[in-house]
Structure formats: C-alpha cells, structure tokens
# Entry
Amino acid sequence: MKYLLFVFVGIVHILPLGSGKAIYGSGVSQRNFQDIKEEIASYGDVAKAIINLAVYGKAQNRSYERLALLVDAVGPRLSGSENLEKAIQIMYQNLKEEGLDNVHLEPVKVPHWERGEESAVMLEPRTHKMAILGLGSSIGTPSEGITAEALVVTSFDELQRRAPEARGKIVVYNQPYVNYSSTVPYRVRGAAEAAKVGAVASLIRSVASFSIYSPHTGFQEYQDGVRKIPTACITVEDAEMMSRMASHGTRIVIQLKMGAKNYADADSFNTVAEISGSQYPEQVVLVSGHLDSWDVGQGAMDDGGGAFISWEALSLIRDLGLRPKRTLRLVLWTAEEQGGVGAFQYYQLHKANISNYSLVMESDSGTFLPSGLQFTGSDKARAIMEEIMRLLQPLNITQVFRNGEGTDIDYWIQAGVPGASLLDDLYKYFFFHHSHGDTMTVMDPKQMNIAAALWAVVSYVVADLEEMLPRF
# Structure
C-alpha cells in the first residue's frame, strides 16, 4: 500500500451553473462561505440520524458481522487467487441483493504470484529455524536452496559502504522502524539494492511497529537491468539477533529455500455499486476500500474493514431513505496490494469524466477508533470539510488532518480531485499489517460502527451539497 502514484495532468471542465455547479476556476460561485456553512449546518439532524443508526440502532455491528461472514468463509484474498475471485462474486451478489443501483463488475488484469513452500535456517553459529514470509513477486530459490554467509546491515548507506563484502552473500537488513513510509523502502527495494552489490538473496526485517515473532509480508519491486534474487521478510527478533551476532564478529550462515513462482496475469474485477444521484447523477462522490489482501491471516484489517465500512456507508444512507443529489459510488478495488493495479485500470477507464468527481475517499489504514479525517485539496475545500466534520460532534471526532491519501485514490488526487482518508491508530495498525495476525480478532465492532458513521456522514453531505467541492 501507499507508495505507487500516478500523475495525470488534465483540463478541468467547469460545469454550468444549475447543474451541480462547481465553485472553482472561471465558474466561481457567488455564494459566500457563510451561506455554505449554514447549508452544512442544516444537515445536523441527518448526521445524528446516521450516527444513531450506525452506533446505537439496528445497524450497529452490521459491518463487523458482514465482514466476519466473508473472511471466515473465504480467508485471505491474494491477487490472482481463487479466494479473491470467490470473494468478489460473493460481494457482487450481496450488493445486488441489497438493491443498490448499477451493481456491476469491471474487468481487470492482475498479477498472479504464489509463495509456495519456504524456509530459512541459520546453520552457523547454531541451528535456528527462522520464521519468514516471502515478498510478493519474489522469485524462488533452486530446489536445493541457497546456502551462504550473511552480511547484516542497518541501512542502504551501510550496504554501499560494505559493497565489497556483499558478493555471494545473503544480505540481512536490520533497519530500525521509524514509521511506515520511511521504513517500507527497505522492503520494496531491498532485493534490488542487494543484487546490485552481488548478493545472492536478501532477508529484510519486517516493517512493523511491534512484533511477537511475526514476519510481515508485502510487495517488493525488481528493477530493470538488475539481476533478480529471492527475497523474504524475517521477524524483528531474528533481524536484531543476527545484528548483535555480527557486531561481535560472529560468522552467520543461512540456508534459504523458497518455492515462489510468478504466473501470467489473471482475470479479476473491481466491484462497483451506487446510490444514483437525484439531481446530478453524472457527478460522483467515490467511497472505497480494497477487497484483495495478502495470503496470510484473513485480510480482515487490511483491508476488509475499509471495504466493509464503505459498503456500510451506502447501506446506512439507503436504510434512512436518503438519496443525495450526486451519485454515491462504492468501489471495492482488486489488486491494491500489488501497487493499485485495479485502481489504475479504473482510473484509465473513467478519467475522461474527472471533472465530475467531487471527492474520492478510501479507507485503508484500519478501522480502529478514528482520530478524524485526512484531506487533500484546496484551502476552500478544506474549509468546507472542516464544517462537515463539525457534524460528527456527537462522536467527538471533528478534526481534519492533512495528507488525505490511499494507493487506490492517489491517481485522482494527483490529478486535482479532492481526496479523503480515515485516520486512526496507525501504530497499532502496523502490529498486524500483512501478517498472520490480521484476523477478525483484531477488529472491534464498536469502533467499526463509529468509523462507518463518520464515513457515511461525510460522503452523504458532500454528495448532497448544492455545489461540488472547489478544486482551486
């Protein structure tokens, strides 16, 4: 998640007044901000109704229970797997049966990688079997494995300084965890950087804020013109142990075996459902999460929770008999974990209508108790979002933070569409991220209720305002 961006430069089409007019560009609205504040404040009773239904009413715990039904039955949902396609078909039927509008599947070609059997054993200075998880798209080892001495480093800079020592060795990275964005490059680029200095494989300390001897998988990228070598994540504990050993001059020998294979791209789908707009159906507020996951745990947190509160937002709005002026579109992305593959293909298919997108939203950082909303957009749009978040005062969650983002919506944000994401406890999130620990046990139904209420209020009000969010 969260590192692939696509930049599109386009011309913003200014919609005519009276057709869900936008307050940006040359079509600047004559309404002043006080008028907009009063319009938003008028949604107070609607916001309370959504909150009461989600948190205290008949819909409480519904998103949790729906999610449990799916992930308990299907399990993890790796790109290209039968599990993912089974989950997509189940969700398609669920959305159809609920009576949402325009339920359909949009075809996508997605990567297909399987990890196979894998193991890593430290042979010297003592025998120790290590817990590992191969990284997505890694090649496998020969059937007999790779046995080599380890070179332990704590940074790419150290690897470069010690490049003459790396040839023929397994590079072990023991980079400290700072935060996800600054630490994840070791997972993404670790194999390629090790290969450049002649290493035969790489083992990377899991990108995790906490560990109970848990390896964390994820996507990695080879580089054109650089030899591909097998790569896997190891636990924080084993990375630190080998770092201590190496600091004392101890020789470390590891045998690595990986049966990983890459196959031809597979067929998959983005799953789409809507509440059609009552006045400006061609204009869109998009709410989303991704349905795929890694192949360990259940993919309940990443990103089952985000996908299911996005579905729940539409359900809450429909249950209350509400129909916003603009179309509220749910998209459940496929192959997010491989770098936003499904979202990129959706963007290519729909970007001609970019002027009709008022806001794109993605929940892909957990559905723990929200701290507020992250938002990327113009100052004028931010001021509007701050007023909308005041409607969440009954939940005491009203803050608007910067840097709204998500792998699947970043294509739109980079092209100028306002974007929003849910912000909650990221430190806790990375306890479980991409690990065997990502199960329903992580999820809290009460916190999901609150996250769904926030998601529904924000998406509905933006979709129902007289004007689209301003881009400038």
Remarks:
- Residues 344 and 401 are 26 Å apart (CA to CA).
